[in-house]
Hints:
Keywords: Coiled coil. This protein is mainly α. It has helices spanning 3-19, 25-36, 40-79.
Amino acid sequence: xxxxxxxxxxIMNTLSYLFLDPVDALDLDIxxxxxxxxxxxTITELFRQKCNKIRKLSDDLQDTQNDIERLENEIEWKNxxx
Length: 82
């Protein structure tokens, strides 16, 4: 396995670990096949898709945090009798 592909796998697995979104063995298998065929653009696309998925998860997390904060504020106001 080439160093670049090893690094790609490491990056994808690290991102997956951080965001609890596992990289399927199929993702890495496809990346390896495409790399062996010289299709670097396909590998880049797979990585781009993973990053977009992580961005969406991050946005969803921010929305959830905002909802929690809003609910906490509502509870605080109700507890104060407003």
